[in-house]
């Protein structure tokens, strides 16, 4: 397959994808690195194009050619210095792909996780990666959340973002009431009245994780059926939200 030389216009377009405004305008987001790009063929998303540096390793070239053949998309090539400027990491790997953002709708008969203004893209990506490992297939993101297509979010999820049904909502409360009226809605709190180990999961569930510093907003309290917490033995104020989510998702998955 003959690679195309990248244009200045395309370079500018790719660089714009590091900002939400650029992603919103173009309808594209970046998947960076060999591991994440290798997940494309099993994901919900389609690549618009692929970019390689001129000195890419053979495994990256082979992966790019396989993706390009599968999706009939072009491969662009550029100098290493230019390629590095397109990436979000300090030590980029040899392949990036730009994928088409797709609108997703709630799957009403599936369990879900939900984020209430979790602002750190690393936390958002890590929780999605963990939730996917434990069998969850969709996430609802309330206003104030880090963008699901932020390069750091995608990277922190190790590509799980591309395999998760991601639904952005401006009103999480209304979305839960409309689409998931029969789910058991679990809220995570520092002062919850039930330990996670005591929760029964006989029904489809929704788990709400709150903002890193403020927790779950008051407007969501009316849709929450169980206010749960993680009982610790150490004297400290809280757990990181990504760490707490791992414990909670594990506990709930064991009971399924």
In which order are the strands of the major sheet placed? 8-7-6-11-9-12-10
Largest sheet: 7 strands, parallel
Question: Class of the largest domain, according to the CATH hierarchy?
Answer: Alpha Beta
Low-confidence parts, pLDDT < 50 over ≥5 residues?
none
CATH homologous superfamily designation of the largest domain: SPOUT methyltransferase, trefoil knot domain
Helix fraction by DSSP (H/I, runs of at least 4): 25-40%
Number of strands: 12
Overall average residue pLDDT: 91
Report the total helices: 9
Query: Can you tell me the number of structural domains?
Result: 2
Percentage of residues in DSSP E strands: 15-25%
Apparent shape: elongated
Here the CATH topology of the largest domain equals Alpha/beta knot
Class computed from helices, strands and strand pairing: alpha/beta
How big is the Rg? 20 Å
The sequence of SSEs as H and E is EHHEHEHEHEEHEHEHEEEEH
Structure description:
With 256 residues, the chain is α/β, with parallel strands linked by helices. It folds into two domains: 4-100, Ribosomal protein L30/S12 (60s Ribosomal Protein L30, Chain: A, 2-Layer Sandwich); 112-254, SPOUT methyltransferase, trefoil knot domain (Alpha/beta knot). The protein is 32% helix and 21% strand. A seven-stranded parallel beta sheet has the order 8-7-6-11-9-12-10, with helices on one face. The chain has a five-stranded mixed beta sheet with strand order 1-4-3-5-2, sandwiched between helices. β3 (47-53), α4 and β4 (75-78) form a beta-alpha-beta unit. The longest helix has 14 residues, at 58-71. The chain is elongated and about 60 Å long.
